[in-house]
Amino acid sequence: MNAMTNIWTPVGQLSDIPRQGARCVRHGDTKIAVFRTSDDRVFALEDQCPHKNGPLSQGIVHDRGVTCPLHNWVISLETGTAMGADEGETRTYPVKVEGDTIMVAL
Amino acid sequence: MTPTQARSAGASQPAPPQKLVVIGAGMASGRLLEELAKLAPEKYEVTLFGAEKWGNYNRIMLSPVLSGEKQFDEIITHDADWYAAQGINCRFGETIVKIDRKTKRVISNRGATHYDKLVIATGSASFFIPVAGNDLPGVVGFRDHDDVERMLEAAQKPDGKAVVIGGGLLGLEAAAALHARGMKVTVLHLMGHLMERQLDPTAGYLLKKELEGRGIRVVCNAHTNAIVGDGKAEAVLLEDNATHEADLVVMAVGIRPETRLGVDSGLETNRGIVVDDHMRTSDPDIMAIGECVEHNETVFGLVAPLYDMAKVAAKQLAGPSEAGFSYGETPTKLKVTGINLYSVGDFSDGPDREEIVLRDATKGMYKRVVLRDNRIVGAVLYGDVSDGPWYYDMIQQSTDVSEMRETLIFGQAHQGGGGFDPIEAVAALSDDAEICGCNGVCKGDIVAAIGAHDLTTLDEVRAHTKASASCGNCTGLVENLMAATLGDAFSANAVKSMCGCTELTHGDVRRLIKAKELKSIPAVMQELEWSTSGGCAKCRPALNYYLLADWPGEYVDDQQSRFINERVHANIQKDGTYSVIPRMWGGMTNAAELRAIADVVDKFEIPTVHVTGGQRIDLLGVKKEDLPAVWSDLNDAGMVSGHAYAKGLRTVKTCVGKDWCRFGTQDSTGLGVRLEKFLWGSWAPHKIKLAVTGCPRNCAEATCKDIGVICVDSGYEIHYAGAAGLHIQGTTKLTTVATEDEVMEIAAAIVQMYREQGHYLERIYKWAERIGHDTVRAAILDDPEGRRAYYDRFVFSQQFAQTDPWSERVSGVDKHEFKPMATLELEPAE
Ligand code: SRM
Ligand SMILES: Cc1cc2nc3c(=O)[nH]c(=O)nc-3n(C[C@H](O)[C@H](O)[C@H](O)COP(=O)(O)OP(=O)(O)OC[C@H]3O[C@@H](n4cnc5c(N)ncnc54)[C@H](O)[C@@H]3O)c2cc1C
Ligand code: SF4
Ligand code: FES
Q: Across the interface, do B824 and A9 touch by the CB < 8 Å criterion?
């Protein structure tokens, strides 16, 4: 795995993602969900809910969290951990935006 | 029936009920009739006269109605059903002009009515200061529904000017409300400071500053000389010759007890109709209650004592009773959103008085507690009123406060140190501490009621105890008390608010979106003070729907506020794939459609094909990327989205009806198709399912649908409010009509009424349960114009709704939803 850590990889333009929305990036057989908040912050999580692998990229984005489309767990975009009563964690990836280009550290 | 009645019925004839006549359908008589219904339901045959067009309503709340924070129908306390259930004969819109005590009859313009017992509850009328022009059109009091109507009419005029004469409770509520309605408002007050009867000069000053800060002009020491204008009020003239322009002049200088009937019929009367401790007038068969009475040389202007009168009178009427009327201090609050003031007791200075004062200029906070030999006799609170009930309790208990003098003014929080817990605070109150001033409900009553009927929601507590059911100021207190009593079993927010982001209920939010003309999600969150910056997955879909439904054609649907199913127009499955359900109008299909479906299934290797419970075919396990291509093929065969994912029209099930079935009475299939083609595409608070069945055998299961039509020989039975999901609920029959067109109009009207009133995720059956079937009948059946208006609004909104979401997406809308932003290959690892 260490072969693929911390290489900043351009994955798309900020404008590709609607505010309070997400797009997916296929990385081999992992799916990464890239989120854009209402204030244009960008976050990247593995597109798998810690509960039952629900596709987080399909959830509703609010503040710094996303609500999973399957059973409404709320996952923090910043830490990847489930908020509230639920417990679990999803892998997060470092992200930066240069100009309009979104870079994810892979 | 009570045993005694049973016996007397068996033996001799039961005594015929006596005739009780009540004059005035107001707050006092409303309470009287309730109490009487409890104590002696059979004893009287009651006739209720009311000069106003409707029955008893919560007059207190005319202020929020004027400001637009409430609607009139929300403040009606007794509706037709209730009177009917009590067997009360209602004569609304009928004014009693004379009481003939010799023949024991009351006379109205429509004739005479005999009474054995008579109750006068005529309240009071706005007092109009005797100056020239006080009778010009455009000069109104602030007393009843019609006054409010007149004011709202005047408020229509773009930047119209209003002058309110009188800076008391009533005048200021009127001023704030008219200001909220966009009028330029000036308050003319005779005295040196506002609300001088309830406030000391400092609190009066803070109040004036607050109002002026909001853009309301306040003139004190203003002596009105005349109201001038030709044909209608145009300006108010003061003694110092200052003039104040006015399109509307509101007289709020005080009230005059409505005693005319008493005077004319020779009852003992001073300022009010004189009554003894048992509410009896000088005529033993006539009682009087409410603002029209005078008791111990006192007249009244707040509801709390009037409700006590009503209770006493009811006991008297039910049978001989010792209960007598007595009253204490009534706290005063101003019902103006954003202004908190509380005043109770006697706070005038005096040699025997001491006062403790606390000010916080930056917070605009002021507290003053007045003591006489170590006991609180009065309190004035401005800004922070949370300790009002605590001080009031100590006034009533005449608690010796010498122990806590140092900390008294800081409030209950600072007694015995420790952080302040409002719930512990109510827990600490004595059992006869008054929680609800309007209805005189004590802590003990509420706790008892909660235990006796295991109440868990605020509404239940209101229903059983009336606590917080009038002006609502004590709602928070009641909730804290419930929390203290029920512990975890009670969650205020679960009970009221829409979600964690707001205190407001769905009902509040829907009303305010309209009242304040809020047309975007950010506008709602800003104006209604959402506690989160972006809302949550609960409130955003609801808001998006409310705005869509309330502002058709204006509001732009916010895709990011929709659940994934509605965003991609397919149902997400547990493995992240999707299901696709094309419409099969009225459950009809044909070879071409079936062939296209078969081809799609082969082409995209769709693993599961299922015939749904909604008479159509579900393709499950479609990959998201494939959706647009799948839809495009289905579109080509003329099929559109079945909205199986939508909070909106799902299916219209039909049976084969008279085309084939030997029992069929009408073209159930044809009507089903027609309904589905008319209703599809509309968004609603929750899913809507219909069925049309060809005869009462009901093969299409119409009697468990949101709207069900049962064809019969004579036409079409329309049923509604059924469901067969989590909760099985048979439909309620609405009516039978002769033609398909009538079915279409009524169905669309119901759907539109539900779209406008339903709370998000509330099925039609829940909505109807909440507002009552009679309300629906009244709106849809008894009021043809109203029904037509609903129908027209539905048709209007449909023109923005009926585009097939699938073909839209096939042609490129929301492309980003359907393909990954990037696909990266791994570098071959060494
Ligand atoms: C596909 C179908 C089952 C089937 O294969 O037959 C179905 C599938 C689902 N139903 Fe249903 N319901 C289906 C007919 C029904 C029926 C029967 C009917 O419509 O005559 C009912 C009972 C009638 C009723 O609604 O009152 C029904 C009562 C429910 C309920 C309970 C609703 C309620 O208020 O109690 C839910 C849960 C909900 O909506 O909150 C539900 C929810 C669902 C959802 C949307 C659950 C979800 O969110 O994923 C399922 C979507 C599956 C999918 O991906 O397609 N489904 N569901 C049927 C699709 C009908 C159609 O053609 O559109
Ligand atoms: C805008 C407003 C705000 C208020 N706010 C508060 C508050 O916050 N707190 C508080 O405690 N109090 C408040 N009040 C006062 C409270 O509403 C009154 O004290 C209460 O309504 C009096 O009740 P009542 O039954 O005596 O008279 P009403 O409620 O006035 O009822 C009398 C009824 O009798 C009818 N009537 C009169 N004469 C006849 C006749 N000859 N024949 C037939 N019918 C007749 C009248 O039309 C009226 O409908 C407020 C009042 C108003 C107008
Ligand atoms: S509902 Fe009546 S008409 Fe329709 S199929 Fe059943 S039996 Fe036949
Ligand atoms: S899979 Fe995400 S909440 Fe269940």
A: yes
Residue B22 predicted with pLDDT over 70: yes
Tens of pLDDT, residue by residue over B489-538, are 676 545 468 887 888 889 889 988 988 888 889 888 888 888 877 788 88
Does ligand 4 lie within 6 Å of residue A74's CB atom?
A: no
Least confident of A49-53, B142-146, B617-621: A49-53
Owner of token pair 């078969």: B598
Distance from CA of A18 to the nearest CA of B (A): 8
Using the Cβ of B813 and the Cβ atoms of chain A, whether some distance falls under 8 Å is answered with: no
Cβ separation B820–A26 shorter than 8 A: yes
The DSSP secondary structure of B280-313, one letter per residue, reads B-SSTTEEE-STTEEBTTB---SHHHHHHHHHHH
Residue whose structure tokens are 């003139």: B219
Contacting residues of B for A37, CB less than 8 Å apart: 534
Q: DSSP 3-state assignment of B506? A: helix
Interface test with chain B among A37, A62, A100, by most B beta carbons within 10 Å: A62
pLDDT in tens, B260-303: 999 999 999 999 999 999 999 999 999 999 999 999 999 998 88
What's the pTM value of the predicted model, to 2 decimals?
0.52
Q: Burial, B351: exposed, middle or buried (Cβ in 10 Å; 0-12, 13-18, 19+)?
A: exposed
Smallest Cα distance from B559 to chain A, Å: 9
DSSP state of A70: T
B73: Cβ contacts below 8 Å, ≥ 6 apart: none
For ligand 1, the distance from its centroid to the CA atom of residue B786, given in whole angstroms, is: 33
Classify the complex by whether its ipTM is higher than 0.85, answering yes or no. Answer: no
H helix or E strand, kind and range, residue B276? none
| Atom 49 of ligand 1: nearest residue by CA position | B571
Q: Distance between CA atoms of B732 and B729, rounded to whole angstroms?
A: 9
What SS3 class is residue B720? strand
C-beta of B64 in contact with ligand 2 (< 6 A): no
